[in-house]
Amino acid sequence: MENYTRKFLVSVFILFLFFSILGIRIWYLQILKGDEFEKFSRNNRIRNIRIAPPRGRILDRNGKGIVINRSSFDLYVVPSDIKNLDTLLSFLSRLLLIDEQELKRRIYSSYDSQKFNQVLIARDITRDQLAILESRRDSFPWVFVEVSKIREYPYGKLGANFIGYVGKTTKSDLKEYRDLTGFDLIGKSGLEKSYQNYLQGSPGYLQKVTDAFGREIKSSVYKTDIRLKQSDPGSDLILTIDLDLQLAVEKILSEYTGAVVVMNVHNGEILSMVSSPSYDPSIFVKGVESGDWKKLISDKNYPLMNRVTRGLYPPGSVYKIVTGAAALEERAIDTNTRFYCPGHYRLGNKIFRCWKSSGHGWVNIHKAIVESCDVFFYEVSQIIGIEKLYKYSKLMGYGAATGIDIAEKYGISPNKSWKKKRLNKPWYKGDTVNVAIGQGYLSVTPLQVAVMTSSIANGGYKITPHFVKEVISSKGQQLYKYKNNKKRIEIGDEYISVISGAMVGVVNQQNGTAKRARLENIEVAGKTGTAQVVALDSIKIKNKKYEHHAWFTSFAPANSPEIAVTVLVEHGGKGGAVASPIAKRVLESYFKLDSQYSLQ
């Protein structure tokens, strides 16, 4: 009985203590702090803030920043709170130098009240603009500024054509990426687009308590800053690009309209890729003005186009590598097979001319490549025919995707069925003659030529060109690492050796067409090309836009290849005179930097 009474008294005491504490808390909140809470509930409001994640950086192979982030002051408004729209529009128009109608469109066209109650009006305002806003805070409590991270390009235009640019999300973007809003920046081209899922990160969410004037409140009584979820920064891309080499190649090509690609012949790593002219990707960060956009897309030099992956050109004589390899592998010729070149070739009633009007005399496969004799390949084309030529063209990567991790064009590797389907015309023997020397219906990208060159340099393997070595999360975890992907092509080692030996002669023999690509202590192998743009016409050829495209593709060192260098100069003239000296300068830059690489 005593034990029961003791338990009862303890229970009563605990209940008394609980209600006492509760009463004291109610007294504190309602009596002592009641006025403060009443004022808070009457005058203050909750602002829902979405915290955009910093986008992942883009770094070179040695960890140097090519694309990084910096802080940005971003101006928002709360449309539901606006009291005097005309006054606000007038003020912001003068402050930001933006048309009032455009401001009105920004305020209401992208407002999504179901998600957040703020709308982004201007990104990256200046400190002077920020100071003016702060001075007018009482007049416009529905205007506020948040700090975010935006893209910064320490080297300006460097790599813009493969890095790409970012821009505002579209309706289709929002359907695909559910975490995004209409205020976010998303990859629109290049690596920024291809690796969007890695670079974007995930947003955080925050609730802030503000007063009637939009000022954040700090109180010891109630919590005014509630972080619902921390943002997770995007992951970093570690590229195969070497920044120092890229800087050197960009400078070398700056005087020309064209393309250069430097690639590891064993694993497809892109060490440098330059398309000239280029553009400044920073103009897209704040939102490109319509005038600037029209200027870019109407520019006849096509700065937005990556000529390496999306420029389509007749390959000219660099394609003789394919024709020669096909003829050898099909046993249509051997190293002793010779044809006589008088400077022209007759097929029926049509005359096909060699670039050397006086002719090359008796020519075998080695001499035909070294001196780039057209007639030899005219003869070969009629032995193997277009279907065999088409087979090896495909094997060496033409008319198909290379697999690179940015957008590319496939070009055209034609045959009988292609012509019938595309043009509804029969295939003629003369068509085969043209294709054999890289003319006619053929169109290729400089990257495809570099892939073909690498397959000769590495002993007969087709490799996949790529930019990204690995992806590292903000927490330091490796999310992706490239795995070498190469495939043996059906050309015998002995025939690969014949072609590569002839390419050595192109640069190093006295009668070779690329003597200007020679290096003093390193043997270079290569092939020139001069691609006809229009039928030879003495009137048209005086116009620069009708001048031939200049090609040179190469690998080095010839006895132990490391890299392929492919150069295209639009309307540059002869490949040996224009493109091969550019390749020489690129090769010199690479081998000066060679100690920094670990390419195998």
Description:
Helix 13 (320-329) packs across helix 15 and helix 15 packs across helix 17 (429-436). The longest helix is centred in the first third of the chain and has 31 residues, at 2-32. Strands 2, 3, 4, 5, 10, 18 and 19 form a seven-stranded mixed β-sheet that branches. With 600 residues, the protein is α+β, with helices and mostly antiparallel strands. It is 36% helix and 20% strand. A hairpin with a 6-residue loop joins strand 22 (549-556) and strand 23 (563-569). The protein has two domains: 47-239, Penicillin-binding protein 2a (Domain 2) (Alpha-Beta Complex), CATH 3.90.1310; 243-279 and 308-596, 3-Layer(aba) Sandwich (Beta-lactamase), CATH 3.40.710.10.
Question: What is the number of independent domains?
Answer: 2
Distance between the termini: 89 Å
Shape: elongated
The largest sheet, given as strand count, sense and whether it forms a barrel, is:
7 strands, mixed
